[in-house]
Amino acid sequence: MDGRLLLERLKQVPEYVQLFDAALGSEPSFGGTLKAIAAFQKSLVTGDSPFDLGTLSESARRGQLLFEGKAACVSCHVGDDFSDGLAHNTGVSDNPALFEDPLRHATYRAFIKNMGVPGYMQVRQDVGHFTVTKDYDDMGAFVTPGLRQVADTGPYMHNGVLATLEDVVTFYNARGDGLGLSPSEVGDLISFLESLSGTMPHVDIPTPPPYQVIPNWREAIN
Question: What pTM value is reported for the model?
Answer without folding.
Answer: 0.81
